[in-house]
């Protein structure tokens, strides 16, 4: 699709909100017209359904029954189910631009999206936006609804946060940037209260952040931060990594998906006042379990003592890129 807006249109086609058993058609037209009529009272609702039409209850059953050909798959979201049921009970609420007012959660995963376009501003009630596993490299904050509280961008190609931090959503509580291309220290300056005054959860896992001292000095301004994920970054290899974070960020309750108990906080008390413990180097032990495609040394014939035959030697070099 290229853009979020194009991916959303494909998403709507997949839901089939205008097709049977959803939407307005010959299968429910007179019934819905009767319900919308100001003269239709309770007696009008109890009238027999015309031939060829279905009651709203029967149409909903076609959506909810897992054996129905119109049922959504088990991996569908609550938002998917809600929109389809609204399309049965009140299809006029989802016609034209009204559809954008009904969506509070938008999840577009692995659809080749490259651009977060300004079409997102039509979602004036949007609170949750998940765009994981796409090809997004930059996010323009001016294209994000101000109502956003949850933004997930993991498994993308985001390497620069300047555009995202130009005018970020003020009520954002979760920011997910795991498995991207963030490198410090140029990016670490963007994680302060000036940009994210209400941030509760931050995922920066599996990027290329290296400056632990610099990052912590920025994160310490986030007074509402309770959940932090930094595993997978080079800075997580520092021996005193966890202790330094636990002692530096007093509001933190979960670090790298592990709860911080009072006993652990007491154990690391004072580590934050000893920055000399944070060395810019780490020791890595690599064990090779199995190598394929190499000649078996046991298959070589041993030369007899004093033999003048040619001697063939093999040498191998294993390199690691960090």
From TrEMBL:
<protein>
    <submittedName>
        <fullName>LRC43 protein</fullName>
    </submittedName>
</protein>
<dbReference type="InterPro" id="IPR001611">
    <property type="entry name" value="Leu-rich_rpt"/>
</dbReference>
<keyword id="KW-0433">Leucine-rich repeat</keyword>
<dbReference type="InterPro" id="IPR032675">
    <property type="entry name" value="LRR_dom_sf"/>
</dbReference>
<dbReference type="GO" id="GO:0005737">
    <property type="term" value="C:cytoplasm"/>
</dbReference>
<keyword id="KW-0677">Repeat</keyword>
